[in-house]
């Protein structure tokens, strides 16, 4: 059955519209967005679709077609934020109303194919799809950048994840065949061509199968450490740090490590943009490797499975690899020559098998389009 047919069977009437928003992978620029930094994400071919219709009773009725979610529709009052995944949906209603927009009730049917908890932006895809649907349903006339802020506010204030804007911006603003050069201080972004297949390369996502929730507190601690460091250094955000060596000398070891990662990662983003513009895509590998080491050793957000995936991928012939997303589990990204993809998959699979871990999943990532209306 199509999502429209399921909507009709669930709510007894047709949906008015449907929007689809993609997940994302971040080529480089990890854990910089919450410090006003730079990032270079691209949209993925997998996403979340939301079919929607207004209702006259002022409630939020929602049903997800995901296998791990109860099958029946849930009805939430206007002041009920729900629990778990529901908060990413109700958070969008809250954020729109908090910004002064008149949004009534709605019936929503949600489906998607972004692996949840894999570090691929599934929550942002859900938020953006809901925000786009409500924007059209209620004729709010919000621009794309406004929708990014609505989706981020939903995740920050209701879902309880103190993320920056990276995931929501990528899901909304990316173009097919491009990465988004994102300035998280200004909110501005420019799309830069990213077509690895033109260079005989594949961007290969390695899903370790290790699931984590960014709302469990560890992500928040990293952001708080960055904010503490900025306050001690007398700057608004770590983006403003210019004298890295001098700044590090004034901080304790933990905060110095966090600052070192953020500042050097911003430099790596700028270097990556330069390589893309020069057509030197294969040379991105060294930057990916450096980012992983920094996330592992300075920001301390990796885990054994991610480290093993990265090391095995490089050993198998990848030009470079790194962990993706907030960390503590999820996925890695490898830049692999097309003729080495099978070897890399075999090497990573063998590394996991030797350690008694589950079989990783491999997903070729093609830079795709941002949020769009669907039939």
Automatic annotation (TrEMBL):
Residues covered by the GHMP kinase N-terminal domain: 88-173
UniProt keyword terms in alphabetical order: ATP-binding, Carbohydrate metabolism, Cytoplasm, Galactose metabolism, Kinase, Magnesium, Metal-binding, Nucleotide-binding, Transferase
EC number of this enzyme: 2.7.1.6
SUPFAM superfamilies attached to this UniProt entry: GHMP Kinase, C-terminal domain (SSF55060), Ribosomal protein S5 domain 2-like (SSF54211)
InterPro entries xref list: Galactokinase, GalKase_N, GHMP_kinase_C_dom, GHMP_kinase_C_sf, GHMP_kinase_N_dom, GHMP_knse_ATP-bd_CS, Mevalonate/galactokinase, Ribosomal_Su5_D2-typ_SF
Residue ranges annotated for the Galactokinase N-terminal domain, each copy included: 6-54
GO cellular component: cytosol
GO MF assignments: ATP binding; galactokinase activity; metal ion binding
GO BP annotation list: galactose metabolic process
UniProt keyword Hydrolase, yes or no: no
Positions of the GHMP kinase C-terminal domain: 275-352
Family under the similarity heading: Belongs to the GHMP kinase family. GalK subfamily.
UniProt xrefs under NCBIfam families: gal_kin
Record-given protein name: Galactokinase
UniProt organism field: Sinosporangium album
Record lineage: Bacteria, Bacillati, Actinomycetota, Actinomycetes, Streptosporangiales
